[in-house]
Amino acid sequence: MMERALVVLSGGQDSTTCLYWALNRFGAGHVEAVTFDYGQRHRIELDCAARVAVRAGVAQTVLPINTFAALGGNALTDANIGVRNGVDAKTGLPNTFVPGRNLIFLTFAAALAHPRGIRHLVTGVAQTDYSGYPDCRQTTLQTLERALCLGMEYELTIHTPLMFQSKADTVRLARDLGALPALADTQTCYNGIQPPCGECPACVLRAKGFAEAGIPDPLVERFRAKPLTAPESSLF
Ligand code: ZN
User: Fold this and answer.
1) Distance (Å) from CA 105 to ligand 1 centroid
2) Largest alpha-carbon pair distance within the chain?
3) How far apart are CA 105 and CA 103, in angstroms?
4) Distance in Å, CA 200 to ligand 1 centroid
5) 227 contacts: CB under 8 Å, gap ≥ 6
6) Which band of pLDDT confidence, cut at 50, 70 and 90, is reported for residue 203?
7) How many CA atoms lie within 13 A of 78 on its CB side?
8) 72, 45 Cβ separation under 8 angstroms
9) From ligand 1's centre to the CA of 222, what distance in Å?
């Protein structure tokens, strides 16, 4: 039987690249996506994830996890916390950090994969060139993989194709996988706007990666191709 994979798809650049990585590795028809509606302020991420899944021709499951917003204290779910001032004074972590978010995502992904007989999870987390999230480290993911295998009595592999890639490497990988057109549908900006603000840490990191790879960002190009007064140039 052909192996199948479940990709955690957020609607961002990295998870979209991972979706194409999985399609390349496991083959069309053997890849599914799971997207978490965790109460993110920027609902546009969910629209992006849906578009990416449709374009790639993969089935997508959207799972609601409403608990993060109830926890409060982070800029991704709490409208009272800005993203520009960066680091939380108490924790030293970016204020976009939702404690344990990736652990929870992957645990739910595993719970979805198990009844479907899927033994491969794919996530776009990266240890290099990232914002300092401890739940993106390789050690964390390896330990979680072991815990999930034990806890579900089930052989499961967590793939992290971007773990040691720089942002420029990731852009080149997307190009090699034919994922660049799909990146026009992705959402990175912490301010949740399209065209992207170009100034927040996420936009700056994304732009740096494309610049270093010498490849134009299809998302930026999409808006450059249209007059700024067009209705599509605000939010979609
Ligand atoms: Zn931005």
Assistant:
1) 24
2) 56
3) 6
4) 4
5) 233
6) very high
7) 16
8) no
9) 16
pLDDT by residue (tens digit) across 119-145?
Answer: 999 999 998 755 567 888 999 999 999
> Quick check: pTM over 0.90?
no
Residue ranges making up the domain that contains 121: 5-224
Residue 36 contacts residue 9 (beta carbons within 8 Å): no
| 74 part of a folded domain | yes
Q: What does DSSP say about strands 120-122 and 157-159: parallel, antiparallel, or unpaired?
A: parallel
Is 230 domain-assigned?
no
Residue 188 lies in a domain: yes
Tokens, residue 134 = 């401890």
Q: What distance in angstroms lies between residue 76's CA and the mean position of ligand 1's atoms?
A: 13
- Residue 144 belongs to a domain with what CATH number? 3.40.50.620
Residue 136 within a domain: yes
Distances in Å between the alpha carbon of 133 and those of 77, 96, 129, 197? 16, 9, 11, 23
Domain count, the chain: 1
**Ligand 1 centroid vs 145 CA: distance in angstroms?**
32
